[in-house]
Amino acid sequence: MSNSDSDGALATIARASRFSPAAGGAAQRVAEARAVIARTVETFPGRVALSVSFGGASGMALLDLAMQVDRSIRVFFVDTELLFPETYALVRRVEERYGIAVEAVTPRLTVAEQNAERGDALWSRDPDACCDLRKVEPLRRYLADVDAWMTGLRREQSSTRAALPITAWNEANTVVKVAPLADWTNEDVWAYVAEHDVPVNTLLHEGYRSLGCTHCTVRTAAGDDERAGRWAGFAKTECGIHVG
Questions:
Q1: Does residue 239 have an active-site annotation?
Q2: Closest CA to 157 of 86, 226, 244
Q3: Per residue in 136-158, pLDDT tens?
Q4: pTM, 2 dp
Q5: Candidates 130, 131, 213, 239; catalytic one
Q6: Residue 28 has what DSSP assignment?
Q7: Helices 57-69 & 186-196, crossing angle to 10 degrees?
Q8: Distance between CA 47 and CA 44 in Å, rounded?
Q9: Which of 60, 49, 56 is nearest to 140 (CA)?
Q10: Over the stretch 14-57, which tens digit does the pLDDT of each residue have?
Q11: Residue 54 phi, psi (nearest 5)
């Protein structure tokens, strides 16, 4: 798909975000998110993929909503091979709960091969290069086979996401990128999780607010941005997959 080809699709999906059948507030945001998901699936039948990190509550809420709409949506995560054991455990719980097979998208190099080529612990010396090898490239390779990419990104998560649109053309991966929960608050997410008994990573109850790789994730303090625990000590707030 090209940028010009995406214009009509973007307009169609955007109209769903203005769908307001429910009485305002959180209920309306849930209804609109569900409508955006449905419109995306209708616009790109069989060509939609949903990425879930299994490290945050937002992606889990989106996954639950998507499974209500269409359980044939492709669900995947980028498996850097450096994730927390609790993250892999959650993948298995999700597969059992929803009766789906979650696709693991892996880097071309194993960790051992990367160490041999780039030196040990690349993440501690050049986290951008490590993220590019273990996240950005695998994602780009996977998305070459789809037309629409749904994510659980929200504007409230960090300053770099404050202007996040619900739908946009993603030039880096040549897909339409859809963020059905863009305008949800953290309170909206956790209220939905509680109401629908959505499984989340158990580490979110142990001082972590956003989980990535084990070497690049720490617990956060009260009042910190949701993603403040990522790449502590570096002037880095994004892995790169949501840039461009």
A1: yes
A2: 226
A3: 999 999 999 999 999 999 998 77
A4: 0.86
A5: 239
A6: H
A7: 50
A8: 5
A9: 49
A10: 666 654 433 468 889 999 999 999 999 999 999 999 999 999 99
A11: 60, 20
